Amino acid sequence: MPKAYSYLRFSRPEQAKGDSTRRQYEAAKRYAAENGLDLDDGLTFRDEGISAYQGKHLETGRLGDFLNEVKAGRVEPGSYLLVESLDRISRQSARKAQRILEDICEEGITVVTLIDGRKYDRAALDSDPMALILSLLTFLRAHEESATKAKRLKAAWANKLKNIAEKPFTSKAPHWLKLNKETAKFQVIEDRAARVREMFDLYLSGMGPSGIAKRYNQEGLAPWGRGQMWFESYIIKILANPAVYGVITPHKLEYDKSGKKKRVPLDPITGYYPVVVDEHTFLRAQELKTSKGVKGRRATVPLQNIFSGLGRCPVCDSAMVRVNKGKTFQYLACGAAKHGAKLCSYRSIPYYRLEGSFLEAVRAGLKIPVEQEKLKALEAELARAEANMECAVSQRRNLIEAIKVGALKEESITDTSYPQYVLTDIIEEGPVFREKWGPRTLRDEIEQLDEWVERDRKNIIKLRGQINLLRPAAVEARLKELEAAARAQTLDPQRFNAALQSICKKAVIEYDHSAVDLQFKHTDLVLRVPVTMWSGREGK
Ligand SMILES: [Zn+2]
Q1: How far, in Å, is the centroid of ligand 1 from the Cα of 510?
Q2: Which of 66, 256, 365, 371 has the greatest number of C-beta atoms within 10 Å?
Q3: Which keywords fit this entry according to its UniProt record (predicted)?
């Protein structure tokens, strides 16, 4: 089995922190599993190499280190290197990264970009010019982004640095970054960045901003700003600050006709700050009511509702539908109320918090009820249907056998063997019905038996299906898939939704109880899953 290496794990061997790193790693694992590769976790860049490669690393990421491992024979030819996308590798020199990529492929390694499943290997780079161009463009874009960022920083700070002697400026850096005044670059304060990631993790797994503030105060974590302690409002500010994923929205001052000063937002600049939380995570957190969201193209994020086709209003049983407010706020609301029906009241439930806490509950394990009684009843019914069918089949066989040997004739009239329901109809409807049916022959009898066999056959299939669904093993298998979908590195809402649909009929969004009531296909028992829908400040 060829080996595969995760670039993420190779370049960041320290315990992966945060959802995004974990998900990226899960994607590598999934790719390896789907493509019959043996994912090797053991190989990381070598510690003694850190200082030696520092210079190189700045230009090429850990790609150069990986190449060295290949050259040293610690990575076998024919192995795979899995990276999320090429721009993760280098933000410095496109030309050099490109060359190292070629060198790695030249050594017989296949590089796979997980984001699009594209493979780069020797043959691809030789024969498919698009592969080369695409990878080059990716590198160039990454390089350009950081070059632009560097240029902007330079221009912006050059002026300020000139004035620094007479007017020391307060660094505009958010609290988890500091400005290195010599290089005019932002540096990450690692322990604080870790806290920022933690805030997002906690928030997305259902803890409200006030809960997070309380937790930090209890823990005795010193507040970052001027305050004496952690406040909910400050947590909200961080959760809503696009600077966590590197974006700044500069403003310029303008004067309107009456001479009033106003701040006009300009286009957001990406890559301005070092990224401490990935964009997806940030956007997921944006249902926060107090946040202003992100302006511009980056703000649109496709939402697929994991409860799609299942979510129900607890009051009127209408489907809960998606409602967008602004560009980053996603809500669920009763479809009837949304369309103005008077029968139901309009309540909007912040979607991402619901999603996050529901996924959390699934990951923690759902106790899906199994009805042993119902299972037994169905099994008894199945046994009866099977016996009936067997009986009809052998009766039919006997009749045909008897006709074949001449003991009976197809046209022979049988009076007594009308099925019970026909007799009932004849009694009720009298002669008219008798005419319709006419005298009953053995041929009719055989046709009747055929019908019964067919009816039993369908019934057996249906019962087997129901029993299969009820059997703990079958339910367990479906639950496993649901959990796997909840644990996936990158949530695939469709996959999760399909898994949920395989076991559930409905998911009632019980907003008054902060719970999702799952109604199953296999049982009438309902499972109440506690979730977080409201932060403290939204009330109910
Ligand atoms: Zn409703």
Answers
A1: 11
A2: 66
A3: Coiled coil, DNA recombination, DNA-binding
Q: What is the pLDDT of residue 360?
A: 93
Residue 370 CA, ligand 1 centroid: distance in Å: 29
Neighbour-count burial of 260, counting CB atoms closer than 10 A to its CB (0-12 exposed, 13-18 middle, 19+ buried) = exposed
Q: Are 232 and 238 in contact (CB under 8 A)?
A: no
Q: How far is the CA of 210 from the centre of ligand 1 (A)?
A: 30
State in Å, rounded, how far the first CA of the chain is from the last one.
55
CA of 346 to the centre of ligand 1 (A): 7
> Quick one: what percent of the chain has pLDDT higher than 90?
15
C-alpha distances in Å from residue 387, one per residue of 133, 465, 471, 510: 68, 18, 22, 45
Residues at Cβ < 5 Å from ligand 1 ion: 313, 315-316, 318, 334, 336, 344
What secondary structure does DSSP assign to 132-156, as a single string? HHHHHHHHHHHHHHHHHHHHHHHHH
What secondary structure letter does DSSP report for 270?
T
Q: How far is the CA of 352 from the centre of ligand 1 (A)?
A: 20
Closest CA to 201 of 210, 192, 212, 191: 212
Q: Which residues pair with 120 in a beta bridge?
A: 111
More confident residue, 474 or 55: 474
CA 115, distance to chain mean position in Å, is 14
Gap from CA of 299 to ligand 1 centroid (Å) = 29
Q: List the chain domain ranges.
A: 3-160, 177-297, 372-470
Distance, CA 319 to ligand 1 centroid (Å)?
8
Query: Residue 292: its pLDDT value, please?
Result: 33
How far is the centre of ligand 1, averaged over its atoms, from the C-alpha of 324 (Å)?
A: 18
Would you state the pLDDT for residue 19? 58
Identify whether the C-beta of residue 486 lies closer than 8 Å to the C-beta of residue 496: yes
Residues 405, 407, 413: CA angle, nearest 5 degrees: 130
Residues 3-160: name the CATH superfamily: Resolvase, N-terminal catalytic domain (3.40.50.1390)
Between 237 and 196, whose confidence is greater? 196
Distance 316 CA to ligand 1 centre (A): 4
Q: How far is the CA of 508 from the centre of ligand 1 (A)?
A: 11
Task: Give the span between the Cα atoms of 63 and 91, in whole angstroms.
Answer: 12
Ligand 1 mean position, distance from CA 512 (Å): 13
